[in-house]
């Protein structure tokens, strides 16, 4: 039975749930909302460090629903965040979990990026590694 009546919506919902399940499994969580929050925080942090063309290339690899919240709030004219250090990347994700004292922002980053690597084209991940500063690319 179709959840929405539209195959493309049902498909993206199913795929998004698979990604969230993978994050929950990897982090030992049982909270889908927290997994969504992690996915969104890491993708936004990554997006803000990529040139516009790279953002579009990565977005093309994402399921439609995830692509929607990947772009949510993005201002392409604002420029690229030029931070070069892994700790700075993790600090931005940490801000999203400031009220969750049990959250490990580095582990969240690694988990979400591992799920990203599992579900998008390997060429896209290799390309991200080349575009990001080496220390930040190590998170992938």
What does this 3D model show about the protein?
This protein is mostly helical and 140 residues long. It is 66% helix and 0% strand. The chain contains 8 helices and no strands. Helix 5 (86-96) crosses helix 6 (105-119). It is globular and about 45 Å long.
Q: Report the total helices.
A: 8
Task: Kindly estimate the percentage of residues that lie in beta strands according to DSSP.
Answer: under 5%
Strands, total number: 0
Shape: globular
Structural class: mainly alpha
In whole angstroms, how far apart are the ends?
Answer: 37 Å
Largest sheet: none
Q: Radius of gyration, rounded?
A: 15 Å
Topology:
Blueprint: H1 7-27, H2 32-47, H3 52-59, H4 64-71, H5 86-96, H6 105-119, H7 122-131, H8 134-137
Helix pairs in contact: 1-2, 1-6, 2-4, 2-5, 2-6, 5-6
Descriptors:
66% helix, 8 helices, 140 residues
Question: How would you briefly describe this protein structure?
Answer:
By secondary structure, the protein is mainly α. It has helices spanning 7-27, 32-47, 52-59, 64-71, 86-96, 105-119, 122-131, 134-137.
């Amino acid at each position: 039975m179709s959840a929405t009546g539209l195959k493309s919506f049902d498909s993206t919902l199913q795929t998004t749930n698979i990604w969230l399940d993978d994050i929950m499994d990897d982090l030992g969580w049982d909270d889908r909302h927290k997994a969504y929050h992690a996915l969104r925080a890491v993708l936004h942090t990554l997006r803000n460090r990529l040139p516009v063309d790279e953002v579009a290339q990565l977005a093309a690899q994402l399921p439609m629903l995830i692509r929607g919240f990947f772009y949510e709030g993005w201002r392409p004219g604002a420029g690229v965040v030029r931070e070069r250090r892994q700790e700075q990347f993790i600090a931005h994700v940490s801000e999203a979990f400031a009220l969750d004292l049990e959250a490990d922002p580095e582990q969240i980053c690694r988990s979400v990026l591992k799920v990203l690597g599992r579900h998008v084209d390997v060429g896209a991940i290799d390309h991200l590694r080349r575009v990001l500063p080496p220390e930040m690319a190590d998170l992938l």
